[in-house]
Design goal:
Length: 339
């Protein structure tokens, strides 16, 4: 059995050290009560939108495990990538500033007018930016290596963090979060039958699945892909878990068939929405006081409720929905909600 709390403090035997930046534990709260609208299922919410202000969301849980490696490398600039309104890129830029080093972001898209949302924060904390087209972003790993080489030639030590922080180091973020969740549910004297989480790069899902297996938590983990396909993420997550096992010399026993990704809710594309999803996000805000974003959590909860209404989940269960943050990006999408 993996003990992430001990491994984080020891940092020995190939197991990772970690640094504390997120405001933890985040609460688990009642969210949507059991009703016919949810097929009798009660939905609880894990508020990982409360991990911090500039460092809010699931990304900082992963990034905490990168920090010791960054310091060991003597890095002077962090390089990462993402979309124009990338939550991950913003978290990396803000973390770099907190650590007293620089950040360089390779972003998909073109800057237009006054920056807003995450891009505004990227600039506020002093990140240098490189904008690339979709064609160039297809070779993003190669581009980041080229950017790293450019910094090396200037005498600056770079450290590359992959898209979404989703490599074997980042997996630890939600292995550790799994232990946190289990402890909270035990104190609450309650149990859940399933956990639901958005899937954008796969690292958060992989961590939850590894954690549930490692701690013998009898729960099903469901992911809703917000881009690409379920087939793509099933393959990506399985390979990520295998890389995790190899690096840390552990055996999770996870089979590919245990990766449950639900497709069909990407909508018109990544970070693009249909009017019905926008209406849903507004209805949730008005009825619960909880704000979802239009890229990750809004699509995922919309998909979950739709699946419940279609009878794709058993009735009368208790489900834990992971709110992964993403709120800063909403400011750049105001016209979608109030045009």
């Amino acid at each position: 059995m993996i003990d992430p709390s001990k491994s984080a403090s020891r940092g020995r035997n190939g197991l990772p050290a970690a640094s504390s930046w997120a405001r933890l534990p985040t609460p688990i709260e009642p969210f949507l009560p059991a009703s016919e609208n949810t097929s009798g299922c009660e939905i609880l919410i894990k508020r990982d939108d409360l991990t911090g202000s500039l460092l809010l969301g699931n990304k900082i849980r992963k990034l905490e495990f990168f920090v010791p490696h960054i310091r060991e490398a003597g890095a002077e600039v962090l390089i990462t990538c993402g979309g124009l309104q990338s939550n991950h890129a913003r978290a990396v830029a803000c973390l770099a500033s907190r650590m007293g080093i620089k950040s360089h972001l390779v972003l998909l898209g073109r800057e237009r007018g006054i920056p807003d949302g995450n891009l505004f924060l990227d600039k506020m904390v002093g990140a240098s930016l490189k904008f690339v087209s979709p064609r160039y972003y297809e070779r993003i790993d190669e581009i980041m290596l080229e950017e790293a080489e450019r910094f090396k030639n200037r005498g600056v030590k770079p450290y590359i963090i992959p898209e979404g922080g989703s490599n074997e180091i980042g997996v630890w973020g939600y292995v550790k979060a799994t232990a946190e969740i289990m402890g909270q549910l035990k104190k609450m004297k309650t149990a859940v039958d399933a956990v639901v989480v958005p899937v954008g790069t796969g690292g958060t899902y992989a961590g939850l699945l590894v954690g549930s297996k490692s701690f013998d938590w009898k729960v099903k983990i469901y992911g809703y892909n917000v881009r690409l396909t379920a087939e793509y993420f099933t393959h990506t997550i399985f390979n990520l878990i295998k890389s995790f096992e190899k690096r840390y010399e552990v055996k999770t026993g996870i089979r590919k068939s245990e990766i449950r990704i639900i497709d069909g809710y990407v909508g018109p594309g990544y970070a693009k929405t249909y009017p019905r999803e926008i209406r849903f996000i507004r209805e949730i805000a008005q009825s619960t006081g909880i704000i979802l974003d239009h890229v990750y959590t809004g699509k995922t909860l919309f998909g979950l409720v739709d699946c419940l209404q279609k009878g794709m989940f058993p009735r009368d269960k208790r489900i834990l929905f992971i709110h992964t943050g993403g709120l800063w990006g909403l400011y750049a999408a105001r016209d979608k909600f109030f045009s």
